[in-house]
Amino acid sequence: MSGKEKKEKKIRRILMRVFLGIAVLIFTGAIVFLVTQISGKNSLYSHADSGEMMAKLSALAIELGGTVEEEEEDEDWQSGDIRYNGIHYRYNEDILTFLFLGIDKMSEVAPVEDAIDGGQSDAVFLLVLNPHSGEISVIGIPRDTMTDVEIYDEKGVYWGTEKAQLSIQHGYGDGAELSCERSVKAVSRLFYGLPIHGYCAVNMGAIPFINDAVGGIELSAVETMNYPEFKIKEGETIHLEGMEAYYYLRSRDTDSFNSAGRRLERQKQYLTAYASAAISAVKEDLTFPLTLYNTLSKYMVTDIGVDEISYLAGQAAGYHFSEESLRSLQGATVQGEIYEEFYPDEQALYELILEVFYEEVE
């Protein structure tokens, strides 16, 4: 064998080793990614149990004109099913629900001085992922919704529950995990024991970072706002950047009746636009959620882990979101002795739960 042939043979061996090394790395990476996805999925679904909600809705069905008794001619009837307005419903066990809170603090998350200084949740939303339909639903919950709130004193001693605005529940805690866990319980109770698979509370000071991470948001103002730091007329188109997004989402005239309700409409409008921008960003770069996660980490408290985010990011491309996917809790706002109070319409809430979290059985 000539020297040239030996050299070519050596080069082929080196190239083969390089290709094999690359193949091993790709295979190993794929395995790690798959394991992370599976781990994230299993972790998310282990967080919640639907039994309490199905039992409560079944009991309430009779009061609202539905039925829960098994019917002999319906061979597909299962425990927990509901027949309402002639339609057979069953809870979608594959659905994922997350609670998102906007906390009225500009600073980074830090320990609080006492157990009643955790900050109020000025924005309350449920994000619902339905893998069967590929739909993302967002339910806006008024901050002044009257519901059972756990009350504690400054030292954290439990006093009991009382009907109060949902927003104050977050204040009774540590401003971090404990406050979020109590808010999750309050929202779950409001929705008859709805399973909530994770939470994310973000201090309002993070809004400029969230907004600019997708290049800003363009929208048409739904109301006139005239504040020293931010002015805009109803119908005017604006591309929100930096603190402009904060002012648009946070500002309100507390002396004007139902200003919180009008602010909620602005927040819903913004979320519709942001969801589309975020989904596009994920489709272009699957690491976008992790990048955003790291950017917000100092302003955010969440129990959604990196493996769970990895799983959700991998699923994002298969989901869609539209204006019709954005829903609100229906009810009436009245002036209480001191503050405004929002009372949900029980039947409307019941029908909302059936619409979003249940499926029609053919």
Automatic annotation (TrEMBL):
Give the Cell envelope-related transcriptional attenuator domain ranges.
121-276
Q: Which PANTHER family does UniProt cross-reference here?
A: POLYISOPRENYL-TEICHOIC ACID--PEPTIDOGLYCAN TEICHOIC ACID TRANSFERASE TAGU (PTHR33392)
What organism is recorded for this protein? Acetatifactor muris
Gene3D superfamilies to which the protein is assigned, alphabetical: LCP protein
InterPro entries assigned to the protein according to its UniProt record, in alphabetical order: LytR/CpsA/Psr_CW_biosynth, LytR_CpsA_psr
Q: Where are the transmembrane segments?
A: 14-35
Which residues, by range, are in coiled-coil regions? none
Entry superkingdom: Bacteria
Q: Which family does it belong to?
A: Belongs to the LytR/CpsA/Psr (LCP) family.
Report the gene name: lytR_3
Keywords annotated in UniProt: Membrane, Transmembrane, Transmembrane helix
Question: What is the name attached to this protein's record?
Answer: Transcriptional regulator LytR
